[in-house]
Structures are given as C-alpha cells and as structure tokens.
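Weekly structure sync, notes
Attendees: PL, DS, HV (note-taker this week)

Item 1: Dual-action ribosomal maturation protein DarP
DS walked through the input record. Source organism listed as Lysobacter concretionis Ko07 = DSM 16239. Sequence as pasted into the shared doc:
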Amino acid sequence: MRGRDEETGEYRGESRSQQRRDALEVLAICEQLVALTDAQLSRLPVPESLLPHIREARRITSHIAHKRQLAFLAKQMRREDEETLDTIRDALDVKGETARREIAAMHRVEAWRDRLLDEGDKALAELLDLHPEADRQGLRQLVRNTLEERKRNKPPRAFRELFRQLRELMLGGEPAGDDAVPSEHDELP
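Item 1 (cont.): predicted structure, written out as tokens:
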C-alpha cells in the first residue's frame, strides 16, 4: 500500500506520480516496439507472450483502437519482471545509437559526393589521399556524368551511382562505420 506507515511515519512504495511516469515510459517502449519491423523485432529480447499483442497493435488502423491496444500491450509489459523491461530498454537504446551512427555515416558520404561535384579534382585528390584504393578514373567519370545529367535535366542515375560507389569505398559496403575521416567541409554529428 501507498501512503505513510502508521507506526514509523515512513512512506511505503512509490508515489502515484512515479507510477504514472513508469507507466508512460513503458507505453513509450511499446510504441517503439510496434514501430519496428518483424526482422528488427526478432533481434530484440522480447518475450514470446508479447509478440501477438505487438502484431495486433500494428494491424489496427483506427486511432482509438490502436491507442487502446497500445495501452493493453503496456499493461502486459508491466506484468513482466523488471529485468526483462531493462533488457528491452537497453536493446532499444543500442538500436537507436546504431541508427544515429548510420545516419551520420550517410551524411559524410553525401558531403563527399557534394564536394566532388562542387570542387572537382581538388576534392577527388583529397579523397584519394584518404582512400588510395579508390578507382580514380571511375569516380571522375561518374562526376562528369552527374554534372552532364544535371545540365540536361536527366534522371539522376549517375548521381545515385556516385553515392553507391562512395558508400562502398568509405564504409566498406556496410551501412555504417567510422572509417571515413571527415574534412573541414563535412558536418560533424
């Protein structure tokens, strides 16, 4: 029970405000879980008993019904032990940090692509200093093709291919990484 102990005068249990904050935190976790794909969800340590409720919440499109299903899912999650909730919280935090790193890496690749298009051979020389294994001729050709596409208002096929080549070069084919050294023109995350 909440309130004060009659004999000692000390508080028993959490306050209602703290219980509400905890419930809202679990509800936020539920919203994150529902937003994940099945593949992402399978990598998280979510108990099997919660999976049908998560899928049901995804299926429901009506706003009020979806909100009600999320509340039910949160109630089911609060019944799980605190260790399980902590594990899910930690996994979601790691996933969020990984996503931020991937986005920052993509921004670095985009910045290099823009530099190559704006500065030409000067930027290409800097890129080749950082990545000597790069195909100088291929990159130069892609830059020329991209500039020609822009001039003629054609679809950005070479623009996209240049991005793919730079991503492969800088990130080693992986979606994210910190191999690329940003220059003074790159935005820092």
